[in-house]
Amino acid sequence: MTYIVTDACIRCKYMDCVEVCPVDCFYEGENFLVIHPEECIDCGVCEPECPVDAIKPDTEDDPDGKWLKINTDYSKEWPNITRKGDPPADADDFKDEKGKFEKYFSAKGGG
What is the torsion angle, in degrees rounded to the nearest 10, for the CA atoms of residue 43, residue 61, residue 51 and residue 3? Predict the structure, then answer.
């Protein structure tokens, strides 16, 4: 098992999870974070830190493996992030929205 970041992170990117990760396995896209599944040690300390409940075990809420693939693919392209940055100014406007991947996802790396 590994942890993955899901749809709820898109356009929110609060980054509380980054500060607690003992192995620095988070990678930053323009409006989303991902976890590198091969670097994650399955400790779970990041999961309760996410204010929008975007971090899940890959065995939960990902029956077709979509989010595991997204986390795997983009963690190989985007830069590693080890410190909490500032979330987008409008993050709170998107925290309860569903289906954000199809509407807002950006494949660009970095913040």
Answer: 20
Render pLDDT for 64-84 as a digit per residue (tens, 0 to 9): 899 999 999 999 999 999 999
Q: Which domains does the chain have, with CATH numbers?
A: 3-85 (3.30.70.20)
Helix (H) or strand (E) holding 27: strand 26-28
How would you write 43-73 as a 3-class SS string?
A: CCCCHHHCCCCCEEECCCCCCCCHHHHHHHH
The per-type count for the chain, helices as H runs and strands as E runs, is 4, 5
Question: Sorting pLDDT into bands at 50, 70 and 90, what band is 111?
Answer: low
pLDDT of 26 above 80: yes
Question: Where do runs of H (alpha helix) occur along 1-111?
Answer: 16-20, 66-75, 91-94, 100-104
